[in-house]
From TrEMBL:
InterPro entries: BaxI_1-like (IPR010539). The chain crosses the membrane at residues 72-99, 106-130, 136-157, 169-191, 203-226, 238-255. It holds the Pfam family BaxI_1. It comes from Halopolyspora algeriensis. Keywords: Membrane, Transmembrane, Transmembrane helix. This is Putative YccA/Bax inhibitor family protein.
């Protein structure tokens, strides 16, 4: 049973600090977009805590914000030219982190740094070229932080419980949205604007709101996976995977909010 759509969590073991699960075959407390999570090997370090998750996530965010701000300050054609290569390098680093068998903090930090360059370039493009309104950058950041905080409160209070049914709905909605975006991209080679899903029209606005909603609910699955990893007593080093996974969702959400805000600037 898949319990999160985020592939970044595929390397999180199913729990078992020290000999807790040694010699046992245990069902994973959470899964990934790639299927069942592997059972945890015998751990030699200390178990992961919420402080580990907060610290590692804050570190990756600080790196991303730092490189992003530096890229934005550089500005001009240089900042925008860096966006595409940074996106490609970031994608490669993400794949390495996801499929690498061992935890690598250096790779996670490298991914955060490159994503910052990408976001800095894209932000400059949207704020100074697409809309000629740099103010939407802070609006997008505030919106991203607000959605993240709101979903964390929703999860911690149990206002929305992460059930198998909800998990299937979120993963299905995500898959559907990705298919539609691919179809829109492909059709764009033949018809101007493609299916119109990424245009400043009522259809485009509605689709952006849908994708933002899916990204927001994806946080619930991410929080649940992290929570079960902590309760399962996995090694503290796996907090880097949690930080990486949350970064992936945060970047996605920020880009979608930035795109949505840009639609209203051209009204």
């Amino acid at each position: 049973m898949r319990t999160t759509s985020n592939p970044a969590f595929k390397n999180l073991p199913s729990g078992g600090y020290a000999n807790f699960n040694a010699g046992q075959t245990q069902s994973a407390g959470f899964g990934t977009g790639f299927g069942q999570a592997p059972a945890a090997p015998q751990q030699t370090g200390r178990p992961m805590t919420i402080d580990d998750v907060v610290t590692k996530t804050a570190t990756t965010l600080a790196v991303t914000v730092g490189t992003g701000a530096a890229t934005y300050v550089v500005g001009g054609a240089a900042a925008m030219a860096l966006a595409l290569p940074a996106a490609l390098i970031g994608f490669v680093l993400a794949m390495v982190v996801i499929f690498k068998k061992k935890v690598s903090p250096a790779l996670v930090i490298a991914y955060a740094a490159v994503e910052g360059v990408f976001l800095g370039g894209i932000s400059y493009l949207f704020g100074n070229v697409v809309t000629d309104n740099p103010g939407i950058i802070m609006q997008a950041i505030a919106g991203t932080v607000g959605v993240f905080a709101a979903m964390l409160v929703v999860y911690k209070t149990g206002a929305i419980r992460v059930t198998p049914k909800l998990t299937k709905w979120i993963i299905g909605a995500l898959a559907g949205a990705v298919v539609l975006m691919l179809l829109n991209l492909i059709s764009g080679f033949f018809v101007s604007g493609g299916l119109g899903l990424r245009e400043p029209t009522p259809l485009g606005i509605g689709f952006s709101l849908l994708v933002i909603g899916i990204a927001a609910f994806s946080f619930l699955l991410d929080f649940d996976a992290a929570d079960k990893a902590i309760k399962g007593g996995v090694d503290a080093k796996f907090a880097w995977y949690v930080a990486f996974g949350l970064m992936v969702t945060l970047v996605w959400l920020y880009l979608e909010i930035l795109r949505l805000l840009s639609y209203f600037q051209n009204e």
